[in-house]
Amino acid sequence: MPVTEQTLLDAISRVSKAMKSMKNEGLNEKYPIGLIDMNLWEWPQGVGLYGMYQYFEETKDPEALRFLLGWYDDRLREGLPEKNVNTCAPLLTLVKLCELTGRQDYIRVCDEWSRWVMDGLIRTGDGAFQHMITGDPNDGQMLIDTLFMTVLFLAKAGLYFGRSEYVEEAKRQMLVHIKYLYDVKSGLFFHGWDFNGRHHYGAVHWGRGNGWYACGIVDFLDMVPLEEGLKRYLLDTLRAQAEALATLQHRDGLWHTVLDDPSSYVEASCAAAFGYGMLKGVRQGYLSPSYAEAGGKALRAVLAQIDEYGIVRQVSYGTPVGGDAQFYKDIPLSPMTYGQALALLLMMEGLRHARRTS
Question: What dotted CATH number matches 5-20+35-348?
Fold first, then answer.
């Protein structure tokens, strides 16, 4: 059954409202910076802000813009945390606010941090961005997450500041991450690669990690002017991944957190990312129209996970790279800002489809 425009608008309103006030309700967090509370500068909140900005772009809701400006103003007054891959995530939205407002304080932050990405972020094998995080440089580690958390910002900053070398570096990072993390046998991505031990850790096809490519690459393709050969290469990789994902989708429309392990729980944030990538990919002509079916099924499944308070359920907590599939199965479920944000991205893509076909 098709999802109506009004159903989506109601769900978008509830999910965005819940995300603005998200707090940790008792989960014992082990990281130096909390991953749940909205009013912290880390990667989950960064993904949340990106979803909120796309919500503002689509609906022009002035309250959404007020929230975004207030959030950044509060964090700038508090002082920003250490620079690393994950703390770059909120900057993707901030550079968009630079375009919108022209505010010099926002521009200075994006200028400083984009220069740091180019000159200060630790590089590992083949010059890949090392997945350094708060409190841990993660020596020799490359993760698929980095593409969404840092590379999208670098590309956008390069375009905004007119620094072509930033854009070229973002393209190169896309290629080197695919080189080491794409699994040619399955069409899926491994979560990580260790340049020191020369291994893929547990060689696990983790759901949300694959989601960072699926949703990130369609936005990268929209954002960055690409020469035809590189564009085809990125599209071929996306299409191979989409083909693999379509065969692994659970009957309820979600995907397992370990994509090819049916004994692992089904997980909503990866489903939202895949649904967004598929529906936007179809709309932009990157994917065959046949993927609208899997994308629509994911949309309905994610909608079913939204409770009466607007919280997206069945979302796994922040997940470092693991040594085996059991590691991912043991990650607890918890409401998360990125779960809200990825659901927003998917629902807004569903809204665009509903408006085109009504």
Answer: 1.50.10.10
Give the pLDDT confidence score for residue 57 in this predicted structure: 92
Helices within the chain (DSSP H only): 5-20, 43-59, 62-78, 91-101, 104-119, 145-146, 152-161, 164-181, 207-223, 228-248, 268-283, 291-304, 325-329, 337-357
User: What single-letter amino acid sits at 131?
Assistant: H
Residues 185-190: contacts with CB under 8 Å, at least 24 apart = 186/244, 186/260, 187/240, 187/241, 187/243, 187/244, 188/241, 188/244, 188/245, 188/259, 188/260, 189/144, 189/213, 189/241, 190/144
Which pTM value belongs to this model? 0.96
| First CA to last CA distance, the chain | 14
Q: Within 13 Å of residue 253, how many CA atoms lie on the same side as its CB?
A: 20
What confidence tens digit (pLDDT) does each residue in 324-356 have?
999 999 999 999 999 999 999 999 999 988 887
Report the alpha-carbon distance of residue 262 to residue 331 in Å, rounded.
Answer: 16
DSSP 19-79: HHT----S----SSS-SS-TTS-SHHHHHHHHHHHHHHHHH--HHHHHHHHHHHHHHHHH-
**How many residues would you count in the chain?**
358
